[in-house]
Amino acid sequence: MTNHGSGPLELDARIETLPLTEPFHITGYTFVDCRMLVVELRDGALAGHGEGLGVYYRHDTPDTMLRQVEALRGAIEAGVTRGQLLRLLPPGGARNAVDCALWDLEAKRNGKPVWQLAGLPPPRPLPTTFTLGADEPAAMAAAARRLDGARTLKLKLTGDRRNAERVRAVRAVCPDAWMMVDANQGFTRETFAETLPALVEAGVAVVEQPFPVGREDWLDGLDCPIPLAADESVQDRADLPKVAGRVRIVNIKLDKCGGLTAALALAEEARRMGFELMVGNMGGSSWSMGPAFALGALCAVVDLDGPLYMRGDRSPAVSYRDGRIWCPDAVWGGPAMSAA
């Protein structure tokens, strides 16, 4: 894996906002648009792009991220390396945006795609989940019907006691779909026990982040035949020990750990400890999906549907067909002048 700079750079960092097609509900939050930090690094005629959404529940916002990047403008434009960036910025959206821009630029400088530079398997279309925001059961079932071509579903659940209804309603209209659920920390042990029979009956394959961060002990002795995944409980490598022996799957998001460089290190450590891997997203355009797509080659579960819920995207963009995501080199991470 290469990790070097090559002279001074020109930095452009800005905040962009793209509206969602409709409000998106999860436990404790409703989103109506997608605000992101966009970083462009130029070396003459070559440009690398990165995008960071941040981690909303850790108060890692585009405004704070932009201030972090501007504070390091001198070091970045002097030709910062990805290794140096790990020391200069903490995990989060700011480091993610700069790190991914560096990877994208490096691919163009070297004439090789990122997957090859990173030693990853050659890319292929990846089955991805299509997410249903938490809503009334009938509304979620109607939304599932509209997901043309979706073979893999992710249902957002909430802290109320209607989750069994939600799961049953969606399963009734999508009898053959692979299905996982994500509580976003919304369950208690009591409400989880109440809902679990419906999850088993519906053939749910994965339960993501059932309990709040800091209550990983609630997973101890949990009688659950469905594999569990950690999301909010694992931000970066330092969090892996607290979920060891408690969950089977770790959801890696570049905004959480702070870029593709950190994500690859997290993936390596997680696999060494016996975890299966999932790659997810905090939303965003195709510039967020591109680096996560590269990581997806290592993952058992892929959740990269962010652009589907926005009214606009980059051009060129990732594509969704037959329940799969595909990221051509021209979108992100390919050599200069590559064709889609």
In CATH, the architecture of the largest domain is Alpha-Beta Barrel
In DSSP terms (H or I, runs of 4 or more residues), the helix count works out at: 12
Approximately how much beta-strand content do the residues carry?
15-25%
In angstroms, what separates the terminal alpha carbons? 25 Å
Q: How would you describe the shape? A: globular
Written as H for each helix and E for each strand, in order along the chain, the element string is EEEHHHHHEEHEHEHEEHEHHEHEEE
Kindly report the average pLDDT value: 94
Tags for this entry?
single chain, 340 residues, alpha/beta, Enolase-like, domain 1, TIM Barrel, 2 domains, eight-stranded parallel sheet, three-stranded antiparallel sheet, 12 helices, 14 strands, 32% helix, globular
Written overview of the protein:
By secondary structure, the chain is α/β, with parallel strands linked by helices. The protein has 2 domains: 108 residues, Enolase-like, domain 1; 201 residues, TIM Barrel (Alpha-Beta Barrel), CATH 3.20.20.120. The protein is built from 12 helices and 14 strands. Strand 13 and strand 14 form a beta hairpin.
